[in-house]
Write a structure and sequence with these properties.
The chain is an alpha/beta fold and 283 residues long. The protein is built from eleven helices and nine strands. The protein has a five-stranded parallel sheet with strand order 2-3-6-1-7, sandwiched between helices.
């Protein structure tokens, strides 16, 4: 476990969000100390229970991508369980083998895909489960997320207790209104703030533009964006809490430039305040 490396990965993929990054690095530090101590003692020792983080924020603020970064920073396998529209607790817990259509639940499937005992499992959109099954699903989550109980999680299909205490669960939600109090009590809610215009400009320049240039097959020389144009790119249609609108806008500029180059109308283009209307159709 290299804390310096983990910190670099978290900073490489995300700008800001210091509180979340600190929480992950603190957990890694404790884990490292325990591993060293157990190595010296020569026994299994007391295993450190993983924190169960709940990233709460508006759409497009980077909740799901942060979960990917956490797994990368820790060097662990990553599995995602989508909760959007989940209509039965049996999807999580599996079905008894008595039924003809019985199958293993999503939690054990995730462990199977990860092929590891300590993956990062993302419980995505926890507040989007269907209305009629919410009570049942929250009941399963109480057991799944309780460190005292998940050391012996029983899937109905396997019908044998399985130890999930080393798994790092990360949940995401747009708001906590629809999450049961008993489940919330077991989570560590971390607020994902909306980005200011200054932060979006920084993210657009240093993160989004280089990524989209690579995806579009362009180089930094072929498309240059002037400094004074960024405020117009960030807010062409009013306020947006996340960065998805910004990503779509920059993507549109990249596609336009790619087409102009392929049509032979030039080899390099610069977006300035004079010609911004040509590249930003919605501005």
């Amino acid at each position: 476990l290299d804390l310096q490396h983990a910190s670099e990965i978290l900073h490489k993929n995300h700008y800001g969000l210091e509180m979340v990054k600190d929480r992950i690095l603190e957990y890694l530090a404790v884990l490292k100390l325990q591993l060293d101590k157990n190595k010296n003692a020569g026994d299994g020792g007391q295993s450190m229970r993983a924190p169960i983080l709940c990233l709460v924020g508006l759409v497009g603020t980077g909740k799901t991508t942060l979960a990917y970064s956490i797994a990368e920073a820790m060097g662990r396998k990553f599995v995602r369980i989508p909760f959007g529209g989940m209509s039965s607790a049996l999807e999580l817990r599996g079905q008894s083998r008595v039924r003809p259509d019985a199958e293993v639940g999503l939690v054990m499937k995730a462990m199977r895909h990860a092929e590891s005992k300590n993956p990062v499992i993302l419980l995505d959109e926890l507040d989007r489960v269907s209305e009629q099954a919410r009570g049942d699903i929250m009941g399963v989550l109480v057991e799944l997320l309780d460190p005292e109980q998940n050391a012996a999680f029983t899937d109905h299909y396997l019908d044998y207790p399985f130890n999930l205490s080393e798994v790092l669960f990360v949940a995401t939600a747009n708001n906590t209104t629809h999450i049961a109090t008993a489940v919330l009590d077991r989570l560590e809610p971390i607020q994902m703030p909306s980005y200011t215009d200054q932060e979006k400009i920084k993210i657009g320049k240093d993160y989004i533009l280089p990524k989209l240039l690579r995806q579009s097959g362009l180089t930094a020389q072929q498309l240059q964006v002037a400094e004074d144009v960024w405020p117009k790119i960030v807010r062409p249609l009013g306020f947006d809490s996340g960065i998805r609108s910004l990503e779509r806008t920059v993507n549109g500029i990249c596609r336009k430039v790619a087409r102009l180059i392929v049509e032979g109308k030039g080899q390099s283009f610069s977006v300035t305040s004079d010609n911004v209307k040509e590249f930003l159709p919605s501005y």
